Amino acid sequence: MGWMVPETEISSEMINNQTLVTQFILQGFSVHPEYQVLLFGCFLSLYTVTLTGNALIILAITLHRGLHTPMYFFLFNLATMDIICTSSIMPKTLQGLLSKQSTISYGGCLAQLYFLTWAASSELLLLTVMAYDRYAAICHPLHYNTMMSKAFCSLLATGVWTLCAFNTAIHTGLMLRLDFCGPNVINHFFCEVPPL
C-alpha cells in the first residue's frame, strides 16, 4: 500500500497546521458593557455575603461545643465546599468585569473547571449524606448515636471529598486530552464543560 501516508508524517503535518489555544476569552458580559459596573457591584456584594456567611458558620461550629454533632459537622463541610465553589469563579469574574476583555489561561481554565466541578459535585453528594443523617435521626432515634458516630461521619465526609475529587480528575483529565485549536472564545463568564 504505497499510497498511504505513514502515521508519523500525518501527526507532524497536523501539528504544523494547527495553532493550539494558550488562553481563552471569556465573553460572558461583554455584550452589555454599560452594565459592567452595576454587575461588578452586585457580584462583589453577593461574593462578600457568601464568604462572610460561610465563614461565620464555620467559626460558630468550630467554637461552640454544643454544635459538635453530625448535622453541624456536615454543615461545616457544606460551608467549606461552598467557599471553594464560589472562590473558584468569582475572583476571575470580578476581574473580567473591570477589564475590557476577560481572558484566562489554558491552565487557569482547567484549574477553574476542576475546582468548580469538584466543589459543586461534593455539595450535591454531601446533601445526600445529610439526608441520610436526618433519616437516621428521625427513623432510628434510639440508635442514632451509634449509627452516626464521629468515626462514621468522618468516613462519610472523607468519602465525599475523595470520590468527587477522583470523579472530577477523570473529567478534567479527559478535557486535557482534547486539542483546542479552533476559536478561543467562550460565551460564558467562567470555564465550564458545555461551553468548552
From TrEMBL:
Keyword tags: Cell membrane, G-protein coupled receptor, Membrane, Olfaction, Receptor, Sensory transduction, Transducer, Transmembrane, Transmembrane helix
Membrane topology reported for the UniProt record: Multi-pass membrane protein
One of the record's GO cellular component terms: plasma membrane
Record flagged with keyword Membrane: yes
All residue ranges annotated as the G-protein coupled receptors family 1 profile domain in the record: 53-196
Superkingdom of the source species: Eukaryota
Any one GO MF annotation of this record: olfactory receptor activity
Major site of localization recorded for this protein: membrane
Similarity annotation: Belongs to the G-protein coupled receptor 1 family.
Protein name (record): Olfactory receptor 13A1-like
Protein source organism: Octodon degus
Record lineage: Eukaryota, Metazoa, Chordata, Craniata, Vertebrata
